[in-house]
Amino acid sequence: MSSIAEVGAAVIGTGFIGTVHVEALRRIGVQVRGVLGSTPERGQARATALGVAHAYPSLDALLDDPGVDVVHVTSPNDLHVPQATAILAAGKHVVCEKPLAMTATESAELVQLAAQTGLVNATNFNIRYYPLNQHAHEMIAGGGLGEIRLVTGRYFQDWLLLETDWNWRLQPDRGGALRAVGDIGSHWLDLMTFVTGQHVSEVMAELSTFIGTRQEPTGPVETFSTDRSAEAVEREISTEDTASILLRFDGGARGAVSISQISPGRKNSLVYEIDGSQGAWAWDSEQPDQAWAGHRERPNEILIRNPALMGASGQAASALPAGHVEGFFDTFCAHFRAVYADVVAGGPSSWPGYPTFADGHDEMLVGDAIGQSAREGRWIEVDRIGIATTAEPVTPGLV
Ligand SMILES: NC(=O)c1ccc[n+]([C@@H]2O[C@H](COP(=O)([O-])OP(=O)(O)OC[C@H]3O[C@@H](n4cnc5c(N)ncnc54)[C@H](O)[C@@H]3O)[C@@H](O)[C@H]2O)c1
Predict the structure, then answer these.
(1) Nearest-CA neighbor of 13 among 93, 130, 96, 133?
(2) What are phi and psi of 333, to 5 degrees?
(3) Residues 330, 314: Cα–Cα separation, whole Å
(4) pLDDT tens profile 349-377
């Protein structure tokens, strides 16, 4: 294959994020050959609404299409592993949504299978691809903040605030044993590993369920939807609404993060601050085109995303000049451009710059430690059992 225009893709799942995948693929020039919905009828209705030519009647039919080189998995969490396994077995590259799996045992097997097949594999930790996060990664790797000491922040949303709010994520057999941590905490934790270059090595966590009983509507519910049917049944809830987690990183940094899906007014607020010996850096996903740089002996700065003022990684993730605001959609384009460069090359490069299945598995291991720590009320070490993650080699000299 010599160009991205020759690559065919298909998207499994046609909900909130499946739609974003379809649009982003089109923007970077990939042909979206078709989608697979939960039923042939729903898939056809969504294909029509999105202007996609084809709705596959089944996963087998999708995998039989010789024009599909890459499959994006955007279905609920419990389907990620079986679908990604079938895609790899069919010889197709795969981009899978987070969390990669329901358990770390499953994600370890998926990492191994992907390595055996030699196919491109990516976990969609798209938040890395805000240009200022790419820039921060490069700047910190180059020593721009000195020694990294403290990593703090939050990921807050409010869409599960009410007992009438419902989604498949509330069912552990669909979403996993961890809910707020797996759904949004995984993004924050992956982002901090990417930006600081340090992995979480130990955790001390408290998980809290404030809404112990919720009303499940008898009809289907779209993610983030506020429409409610009149009829509902009561469901006991076992997964966490909030998490408070102390962190130790393998490079010596310490940290703390709060995660919540019940914080009134916070729609999708991922915030972090990294304090180093020579400076600090802070970013907020609801103001993604600017970052704060903190100094002790000179005035603090606001960097407005600007390809002319950022390192090579920040420039590569930027599509527009400064002042032309970029956002959530654009991160998918930047991420997929990086992934599809390997697809065009025929396989993963030795240091893929994008998050792979190994990175998705690493977040599953951190999640396991968080769950165990909350159950046992003590610090727990993250149990890494021999699978290397794909941190890039350090780029020296960039500040
Ligand atoms: N990276 C991000 O920023 C981000 C944001 C939101 C969601 N996600 C992830 O994306 C996934 C989907 O989340 P969502 O918010 O889009 O959920 P959603 O409920 O809006 O969409 C899920 C879709 O999958 C479909 N589906 C169900 N069973 C299926 C099957 N057997 N085959 C094919 N399709 C099937 C549903 O009909 C629905 O259209 C989750 O894993 C979630 O964690 C990631």
Answers:
(1) 96
(2) -65, -45
(3) 13
(4) 998 989 999 999 999 999 999 999 999 99
Q: Would you place residue 231 in the very low, low, confident or very high pLDDT band (cuts 50, 70, 90)?
A: confident
Please name every residue paired with 273 in a beta bridge, in sequence order, or none if there are none.
152, 282
Task: Write the pLDDT tens digit of every residue in 120-159.
Answer: 999 999 999 999 999 999 999 999 999 999 999 999 999 9
Is the full-model pTM beyond 0.85? Answer: yes
Alpha carbon separation from 179 to 93, 143, 340 (Å, rounded) = 28, 35, 30
Provide the sign of the torsion angle of the four alpha carbons 338, 340, 344, 348, taken in this order. Answer: positive
Query: How far, in Å, are 159, 169, 386 from residue 173 at the CA level?
Result: 20, 9, 28
Q: Is the CB of 24 under 6 A from ligand 1?
A: no
Pair of tokens at residue 360? 């998705």
Q: Which two tokens stand for residue 177?
A: 């044993």
Peptide linkage before 82 cis (omega within 30 of 0): no
Contact 21/72 with Cβ under 8 angstroms? yes
Ligand 1 atom closest to residue 19's alpha carbon, by position in its atom list: 16
Atom of ligand 1 nearest to the CA of 183: 43
**pLDDT score of 386:** 59
* CA Rg value for the chain: 21
Decide: 286 in ligand 1 pocket, CB within 6 A: no
